[in-house]
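Exercise 7.
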Amino acid sequence: MPAKPSNHPLLSLAAATLAVAATAAAPLPAAHAANGSPLSATVSPTTVAPGSRVTLHLRGCGSNLGRAASPVFGEVRLSASRNVDSLSGSATILRSASTGVHPVSFECGDFAGSRLTVSLQVVPGAARGGEGGSIGAVSPGQIAIGGTLAASALGTGIWILRRRARTS
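Solution. The predicted structure, written as tokens, is:
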């Protein structure tokens, strides 16, 4: 005799959860270029403020030309970096870009079907320029020490030059 299905709400919820989990765990089909190689694309950084700059990379095209497009920066041409399999470019996020998650579409070569889309999140705030490798804040004590060292070096240089002038 076949088992009678249960009408218990917790069992139904558990079955539905398992079904959703199984669907979510299923692999998505990979994007491929026209030559059959798998495509991969990255946007770095993935979370930015309006006015920020992002770097765009597309690998696996088999072409030396590509493009990336998004509502938050328009269209950017990608070109071969060191080898033909890796394309790159950069874009500046529009200052008027709305916050939220936005698509970035990448396309290869002739732009006929080799497409991959990734996400970029725009958050509120001003673009951070960073320190560019320079030092951070300098305290008044550090300024005084630096000034003293500079004055000492200058005084020593003048003393050496005057001493040489007297002995000549």
